[in-house]
Write a structure and sequence with these properties.
The protein is mainly alpha-helical and 256 residues long. It has one domain (4-249). The chain has helices at residues 4-12, 14-32, 35-43, 47-52, 59-93, 97-101, 107-135, 147-175, 178-198, 212-217, 221-224, 228-249. Pfam families: ABC2_membrane_2 (PF12679).
């Protein structure tokens, strides 16, 4: 089968993927382009108030807090969950998985090629986000953030989507039910975001290190560029999730 499953997966999802790419890039551009007005509004606040609320009026601070801090990671998680849950469990629920496996194709290769297609999609989405932000970098007064720093954050965005895609794919492969994959991914995603956001406030700083969101943005790539340790942890997490799901998938009966 070589890479037939990988190429077929990308071909079948090309319209949806183009929509994700254009939509995510448009959202990123829209929020990033408001930085000049937000900066002016922030500058009008008393300095004591800005310090008490920990408001960072720099371009990197704004992008980290709004663009890459909330909306884009949410979209990346939704893309990963939706795509990963369909990869195996979706076809199994519709009774199509046995037809695919009737070809000379192992279950392991099926999962890995579907995961590779998911990762390619996440990378394509993040690449277009990067290009879109570069296109408005001057007009939106974001020049203090270098193209390399934007690329570093966009790479982490892709890895975040891949991690949650791997989680959904692994759960779907392990249990064969798409609703289990979606619900499990949503629940773990909520817990992970909560741990990243509130760990410091409850005096449990180390808890944040268990969250992929911490490794996605905690190292502040928009200020410091590529954080290779965080990149490695995100990649290793995705690989482990896929490996566990594949192991279980290879050992259970398939619902046909």
């Amino acid at each position: 089968m070589n890479l037939a499953v990988y190429t077929k997966s990308l071909s079948d999802s090309r319209r949806g993927l183009v929509g994700w790419m254009l939509g995510t890039a448009a959202v990123g551009m829209m929020y990033a382009s408001t930085y000049p007005s937000q900066k002016d509004n922030t500058a009008s606040l008393p300095e004591a108030l800005r310090e008490s609320l920990h408001i960072d009026a720099t371009a990197a601070g704004y992008l980290q807090a709004s663009v890459f801090g909330v909306i884009l990671p949410l979209l990346a998680m939704i893309y990963g969950a939706a795509t990963g849950s369909r990869a195996v469990a979706g076809e199994e629920e519709f009774g199509q998985l046995d037809l695919v496996l009737a070809h000379p194709l192992t279950r392991t290769r099926l999962v890995l090629q579907r995961f590779a297609a998911l990762a390619t999609g996440a990378g394509a989405i993040s690449a277009l986000v990067w290009l879109a932000l570069l296109a408005i970098r001057d007009s939106a007064e974001l020049t203090s953030v270098t193209p390399a720093e934007l690329l570093a954050q966009c790479m982490n965005l892709a890895l975040l989507g891949i991690v949650f895609g791997a989680l959904a794919l692994g759960l779907g492969a392990a249990f064969g039910r798409r609703n289990v994959a979606l619900a499990g991914t949503a629940a773990i995603g909520l817990l992970a975001y909560t741990a990243h956001t509130f760990a410091a406030q409850i005096g449990a700083d180390r808890l944040a290190y268990l969250s992929p969101f911490h490794h996605y943005i905690g190292g502040q790539p928009l200020r410091h560029g590529f954080q290779w340790a965080d990149i490695g942890i995100l990649a290793a997490t995705a690989s482990a999730l896929v490996a566990l799901g594949t192991w279980r998938f290879a050992r259970r009966d398939i619902n046909t």
